[in-house]
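Project outcomes to date are best conveyed with an example. Our students and postdoctoral researchers have been running inverse folding experiments weekly, and each run begins with a structure described purely in tokens. The record below, which covers 361 residues, was selected by the lab manager from last quarter's runs and is presented without edits.
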């Protein structure tokens, strides 16, 4: 009987080591023998929680070791595939870091009862950009969840990085190339937007406003840069008919949508809602940036701010970027919420013939 009890206690101890519950045993047929656990060294020194932590650390260390060997193998045998793998892994790290930052911003907004318009510029820009990226990255995250599905993601990354991935999963070289390509596609629509404005000017009954809009379009088409005062002189046309955000023709909406990298292949009412949402966000960003001051931006932030507003800034100096952004903010600061349509058209007015070195179209 003693031998049987000792054997049973050893079995129970091993059961605990494997992280299994023993309640069913201790409360059932073998409950008279459980007291012997306290007399066994193995039972006395190892609790189930400690065992589980030990097993968890062991599994994690083994996984890290295997993963490190796998990375060395890829880097040595398949360097191009390793670059994709490394970009994918680092991209997810950045994505999760930004997710935590956005969650912190959400908690701050809730606890302090803030709206998006009350946020500082950097938090507002982070919140806006993350929301855009995560919606595009969500399908990629879902695809990568099943075991070994990440290999399919690598294939997609290799063949369709610009169409399917967000900047988190782009290499440094791809970031530059894709930004160039996106800007080139946007510039293709500048002339169409100006042509649409010229056609719309025929509907303007006020002779002074009509001449002002025609002269503004002609000046931009001739390669000159309009003054902020010349743009604001026609602002009334962009608050109501015929160029207000809710009064524009469907054709002009289709012309303007690519300026914000939005698809023009939507029904008119959906395009109007999206344009209004994006234009309002841009106006709020401008106001937050005016409170901060463009001089507070570092070079990367400065160039990104110019790019969002239509200026190709890679070939410009920091001073040129800052001077152009200050001009944009001077114009934007004078606009009302109802005049956000003018803000969208300023992407063409102020960027078509930007500072020397930016005229690459």
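After processing, the design step wrote out the following sequence:
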């Amino acid at each position: 009987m003693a031998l049987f009890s000792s054997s049973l206690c050893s079995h129970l101890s091993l059961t605990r080591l494997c992280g299994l519950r023993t309640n069913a045993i201790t409360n059932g047929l073998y409950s008279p023998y459980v007291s012997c656990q306290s007399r066994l060294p193995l039972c006395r020194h190892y609790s189930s929680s400690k065992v589980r932590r030990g097993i968890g650390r062991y599994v994690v260390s083994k996984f890290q070791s295997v993963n490190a060997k796998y990375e060395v193998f890829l880097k040595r045998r398949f360097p191009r595939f390793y670059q994709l793998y490394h970009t994918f892994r680092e991209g997810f790290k950045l994505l999760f870091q930004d997710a935590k930052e956005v969650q912190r911003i959400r908690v701050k907004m809730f606890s302090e009862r803030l709206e998006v318009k009350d946020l500082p510029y950097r938090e507002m820009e982070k919140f806006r950009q993350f929301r855009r990226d995560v919606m595009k990255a969500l399908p990629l995250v879902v695809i990568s969840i099943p075991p070994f599905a990440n290999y399919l993601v690598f294939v997609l990354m290799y063949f369709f990085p610009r169409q399917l991935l967000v900047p988190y999963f782009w290499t440094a070289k791809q970031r530059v190339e894709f930004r160039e390509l996106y800007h080139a596609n946007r510039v293709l629509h500048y002339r169409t937007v100006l042509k649409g404005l010229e056609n719309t000017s025929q509907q303007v009954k006020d002779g002074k406003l009509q001449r002002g809009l025609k002269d503004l379009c002609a000046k931009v088409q001739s390669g000159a840069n309009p003054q902020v005062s010349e743009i604001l002189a026609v602002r009334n046309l962009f608050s109501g008919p015929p160029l207000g955000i809710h009064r524009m023709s469907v054709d002009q909406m289709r012309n303007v949508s690519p300026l914000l990298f939005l698809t023009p292949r939507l029904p008119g009412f959906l395009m109007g809602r999206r344009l209004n949402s994006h234009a309002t966000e841009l106006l709020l960003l401008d106001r937050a940036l005016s409170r901060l001051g463009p001089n507070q931006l570092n070079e990367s932030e400065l160039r990104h701010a110019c790019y969002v507003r239509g200026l190709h800034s890679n070939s410009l100096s920091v001073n040129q970027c800052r001077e152009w952004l200050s001009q944009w903010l001077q114009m934007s600061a004078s606009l009302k919420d109802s005049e956000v349509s003018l803000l969208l058209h300023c992407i063409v007015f102020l960027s078509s013939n930007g500072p020397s070195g930016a005229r690459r179209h």
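Residues 78-168 form one domain. The two ends are 94 Å apart (CA to CA). The training component of this project remains on track.
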